[in-house]
Amino acid sequence: MQVAVFGAGYVGLVTGAVLAELGHQVRLVEVDPEKIAAIAAGRPPIYEAGLDTLLPRVVRDGRLSITADGARAVAPADVTFIAVGTPPLANGDADLRFVRQAAEAIGAGMEPGRRRVVVNKATVPIGSANLVEVWISEAYRRRWGREPDPEWFAVASNPEFLREGTAVFDTLYPDRLVLGADQPWAVEMLRALYDPIIRQAFEPPPECPRPEGQGPVPVVESDRISAEMIKYAANAFLATKISFANEMAAICERVGADVVQVMAGIGLDQRIGPRFLNAGAGWGGSCFGKDLAALIFTAREYGYEPRILEATVAVNRDQRRLIVARVQEALKTVKGRRIAVWGLSFKPGTDDLRDAPALTVIRELVRLGARIAAYDPIAMTNAARQHPELEIRYAPDALSALEGAEALVIMTEWDEFRRVPLAEVRQRLAQPYVIDGRNLLDPAAAKAAGLWYRGIGR
Ligand SMILES: NC(=O)c1ccc[n+]([C@@H]2O[C@H](COP(=O)([O-])OP(=O)(O)OC[C@H]3O[C@@H](n4cnc5c(N)ncnc54)[C@H](O)[C@@H]3O)[C@@H](O)[C@H]2O)c1
Questions:
Q1: pTM over 0.85
Q2: Mean pLDDT throughout 302-320?
Q3: Which is the catalytic residue, given 77, 156, 287, 293?
């Protein structure tokens, strides 16, 4: 099929590259000239496992191209995705400015004579598909003097659940696909588009083999509003799971239990499940904070006070403060102290720093007078470029960051941190303090190495 994708970020680029790999003809539309140049040359502007070989292949084979010209991409497209950013406004509502720009470009670029589905893949407030439909129809009318025929044009909602870091894998082998549309023919077109994924009928690309036991992918067909709500409900539930673990951690600390053991103990219950129960510095990233804020905003628009969601956000905010408090507990005076931070990205496997707990903690420690040396396996370039205001000395490796530091704060659970010998850690640190914001280290091993160790909830 002919596919256009507006927005070549984490979602749009990976979706486009995977659909091209599956045999569709994909045209990306982007406004950022740097991203256009990089992608046209087959270079991913973001870090995603597997994308560095997948992208150049589909570009070279002519299955994926990128342009700033929306109309050129839309004119031949059967399916057009909107995958632009939807950042939060100060009041928590989502900023739909980029969605509107994309919708208007789509409406202006559409030509009659072929069935088209425009798919909202961006996370948009409940009901936004209606707005997208209106924006497209108005732009279309400005060009053709009439609204598009609803037999030939549909707006669908197909929310995205990929995780940054494993985005290619998640797109090829998703837990489920949600297809929300009010016209049955639009659902059929999306089923046809995703058919290789639904039936798992494609040859797995070399960089991303099919996992053992992977069967057909379940499809949830729903109305548009429900599809939009599914995305928010999923993120709200996942964030709540982590905040729940953090609340249990706070109680564990007080009663002398170990939250890691407690969560392992409850996670084996099939009704609960073991994932997203890690206590620590809390969740971050581009999605949870903004999506919870938007869902809370929506609930309040209808006069409903979403108490669980508000508590989820409040507990998470406090976890970042807790890390700083732990540093103060260890060092007492923070002014003039040298502190090492391991991990900057909001989670391992990505260089994404949006709403990263590490940055909140670093900012606060700097404000309190600390001098920070940081190390992250892949996010340091982004940190230096996106946050030139942050006073950070970037270290070439994990151990160098410790040189002369009086405390180590672990903020991202990168695997390589698990492999650093604790005796070396002790030797490099000027003082033995380790604040483990991800419960990454074994407390007994840390103590045996002569470290003063504090995790979260243990
Ligand atoms: N990142 C994730 O893990 C993730 C997961 C699920 C859903 N989402 C949702 O998907 C959407 C996109 O997220 P992302 O992380 O890919 O964002 P991103 O910021 O990485 O990418 C968005 C891209 O859209 C481009 N853009 C902006 N206006 C445009 C326009 N008018 N035409 C063409 N391109 C335009 C931007 O330049 C940018 O490259 C958001 O709504 C987000 O909530 C993200």
A1: yes
A2: 98
A3: 287
